[in-house]
Amino acid sequence: MIPELSRPSVYMRDPRRVEEIIKAMKQAGPSTMQVISDFDMTLTRFAYNGKRCPTCHNILENSKLISQECRDKLEDLLNTYYPIEIDSSRSVEEKLPLMVEWWTKAHDLLVQQKIRKDLLTLVVRESDAMLREGYRVFFDQLQEHSIPLLIFSAGVGDVLEEVIRQAGVFHPNVKIFSNYMDFDENGALRAFKGQLIHIYNKREGALLNSGHFQELKARHNVLLLGDSLGDLTMADGVYSMENILKIGYLNDKVQERKESYLNAYDIVLQQDETMDVANAILLYMTSSH
Ligand code: TMP
Ligand code: MG
């Protein structure tokens, strides 16, 4: 049906079920679909030529907007908390307060740096930010078929927007829920707006933004893309869901985490730096409509 699903990076616990969902969604057509995706390490690459690619936070951390002292502190936080984020031996309950701690400390450090709004464009341009291979086909295809794309990110909204704007794919069908910066009258960062989004409260975020899902009430079929088990709740605000196909990128700690990813995601993409599988599925679902 879709040759890309036979690639060596693709794992499925129940390929028959995947096939059924894809067929049901194709049958219902693009006007019933919405795509909900995580950003960091899902729409962006995990690694390129053996080197790790930056998250939104890393883009700021590696920039000249930040003092060396602050960079060192953010790096320490990353070294402390990232291993916890990906530790499959700890429960979500155990990790949750630690993730809140990470985000809170990181945001406090960023605020202390009084980051300037007018320099964000340059910082992103000079960064190593990289969307996954095939990103243009992904964004353009959704735009062409008027399928809404919700990007639901625990990263930094202002940085994320700039990455997709500079890539030329910030189309009108793209809507973003993320942590947005609040700038003072001089254009310097003074706080983050609204409720903090971290990797384990996307469900609450979805429910808080129920107005968005209300607008898309007729779209009962969801393609969900994520790289963390916390991303699975991003679609919890969707009204009367009919079908959901969940695609999960398994980037790191592959052997330890594979089983849990296979249990949670319909399709697991192991160390796959492309959007090819999602693109092929979307092409199939939207063809002859
Ligand atoms: P996501 O939900 O868009 O994937 O964003 C969350 C990622 O951001 C998560 O993988 C951890 C990462 N992160 C950093 O790299 N540095 C930080 O300081 C923080 C708070 C998060
Ligand atoms: Mg992510």
Helices and strands, with pairings:
Layout: E1 10-11, H1 15-28, E2 33-37, E3 47-48, E4 51-52, H2 56-61, H3 68-85, H4 92-112, H5 120-125, H6 135-144, E5 149-156, H7 157-166, E6 174-179, E7 181-183, E8 189-192, H8 202-208, H9 210-215, E9 221-226, E10 243-250, H10 254-264, E11 267-270, H11 276-286
Parallel strand pairs: 2-5, 2-9, 5-6, 9-10, 10-11
Antiparallel strand pairs: 1-11, 3-4, 7-8
The structure holds thymidine-5'-phosphate (TMP) and magnesium ion.
How would you briefly describe this protein structure?
The chain has 289 residues and is α/β, with parallel strands linked by helices. It has eleven helices and eleven strands.
Question: What report would you give on this structure?
Answer:
42% of the residues lie in helices and 17% in strands. The protein is an alpha/beta fold and 289 residues long. The protein has two domains: 3-48 and 130-286, Rossmann fold (3-Layer(aba) Sandwich); 51-126, DNA polymerase, domain 1 (Orthogonal Bundle), CATH 1.10.150.340. The strands form three sheets. The protein has a seven-stranded mixed beta sheet with strand order 1-11-10-9-2-5-6, sandwiched between helices. It has a two-stranded antiparallel ribbon with strand order 3-4. It has a two-stranded antiparallel sheet with strand order 7-8. Helix 3 packs antiparallel against helix 4 (92-112). The structure holds thymidine-5'-phosphate and magnesium ion. Thymidine-5'-phosphate binds at residues 38-41, 55, 57-58, 74, 77-78, 102-103, 106, 153-155, 199. The site of magnesium ion has 6 residues, from loops.
